[in-house]
Amino acid sequence: MKHSKTILTFVFFLVLSVGSLQARSLRVVTTVPDLKDIAEKIGGEQVSVSSLLSGNQDPHFIEPRPSMVARVRRADLFIVIGMELDVWAFSLIDAARNRNITPGESGYLNASARIEKLDVPEPGTRLDASKGHVHPSGNPHYNLDPLNGVVVAETIASRLSELRPEYADYFESNLERFTEEARRVTEEISEALAKYENISMIAYHESWEYFAERFGIEIAGTLEPLPGVSPTSRHLSRMVRTAEDENVDFIIQASFYDQRPANFVSRQTGLPVVVAPAYVGGMEGADDYFAMFRLIQAKIVEALGR
Ligand SMILES: [Zn+2]
Q1: Structural domains in the chain?
Q2: In terms of pTM, does the model score above 0.85?
């Protein structure tokens, strides 16, 4: 009798623990907030997601903090942008000692895996770090094309389905909804920009190549002389001439960059400066991935209308 009571108690706790295992959502950690937003939209109530960075932080230059290590240590899934944008994530992985989230394991996901990458250097190109080249594996700012968001969403959905096969249909239907919304926002932007011909812009950094490629915008130059190198006055003077020679319409920059270089060129040329979110939450109103694009669109249209 006493024995069967022990067994009953054991079975009771077994049922309880299996039940709570199933109820627990997957802990997902991402480096940037766009990945968080997409993971939440695909994972729904099956995930609890946090982003290490806010949309107002420059992901190229991040000092990993102990609090970040603690979050990565508890993660079931760690999603990075890859292409060496968030290369600092590897030091977090090393420090976290969580085998599941090391590259090659099911808890590590490089969101760039299926992206059609731009500006990938030819094999054998010599990359000189002293020149401040922060894009040695190609341009990592693929998040700024809403249809690349779909590619990322597909990548995340298939991983979540591996981790939680019983919810594969649920992730798939969330992916369908995401894809529809991404196509809608892409059409909206295309329609809004179709009223203008030969749109040309100068960007602070090479953040907008995928956006420009998607929407047929010319990038006449960057305020940075090289990606990751702060603007010099000599280079800014060159950009003033470029603005005049190439009929540039506006200057665009992410919210976290110094605005003085753009303001300098603006004073010399009369061009409007578009300060836009480069990541979700980068500015007020960029509350999710789609709101971010609608805000970028509104700001560009406003500048073109001037
Ligand atoms: Zn960059």
Answers
A1: 23-183 (3.40.50.1980), 191-304 (3.40.50.1980)
A2: yes
